[in-house]
Each structure stands twice: as C-alpha cells, then as structure tokens.
Design a protein that fits this description.
This protein is 21% helix and 39% strand. The chain is α+β, with helices and mostly antiparallel strands. A hairpin with a 3-residue loop joins strand 4 and strand 5. About 5% of the residues have low confidence.
C-alpha cells in the first residue's frame, strides 16, 4: 500500500510541474522525468557560415525553481552582449532540469 501511495505521489508531482520543466524550443529532444541535461541547436546557421574555432561565444542563462519561479535573461541579445558578438553564426541551447525542483536554460551564441 505504501508503494502505491509513493507512486501516486510521484505522478501527482509530475503533473503539478507540467510544462514548467520542458524548454519550449524549435528542437525538443527527449526529457527525463527525474533528470535532464540536454544540448541542442536553437537556431542554425543564420548566414550559412561554417562553425569556426575562432568564433566568439556568448552565453545567457535563466533559472527555474520548483516550476514556479523563473528568473534571468536567456535571450540571444543578452548572450551577444556577454560575448561581444555583432554577427551571429549560430545559436545552441543547454537545458538542465532536476525533478522539477531546479532547472536552468542557457542560450549559447557563436559569431564574430
């Protein structure tokens, strides 16, 4: 009986978190209910410039607590400012979530 109650509690927590733990991006790779740590393209090749090791990199992050509180600026513009980028080549993202308790979303911009 206790096992059934524990499973019901986990399902209820999962339903309460809902979409708060899922990044809304053009590319949605699979996410784990318990833990996610995903890197994927957010927007590919603005000007079809090949990826270069000489590219500048800028990052901007927002964090999420309990699926209720989300703060930060993960915009492409903020990442460009952080990396001093004026010409964007491509944009990736990194998404991490643990049990819907803590998560972060980072936009990573590559360019000149």
């Amino acid at each position: 009986m206790k096992a059934l109650a524990a499973v019901a509690a986990l399902v209820a927590v999962g339903l309460m978190v809902g979409c708060a733990g899922v990044a809304q991006t053009p590319v949605n790779p699979g996410y784990g209910l318990i833990y996610s740590d995903v890197k994927a393209p957010l927007q590919v090749a603005y000007d079809k410039t090949p990826v270069s090791t000489n590219d500048k990199v800028g990052q901007a992050t927002c964090v999420n607590f309990l699926g209720w509180i989300c703060a930060g600026d993960a915009s492409i513009q903020a990442a460009c400012q952080e990396g001093k980028i004026t010409t964007v080549h491509h944009v990736d993202y990194h998404f991490m979530n643990f049990l819907g308790i803590y998560g972060n979303f980072t936009t990573i911009v590559y360019g000149e």
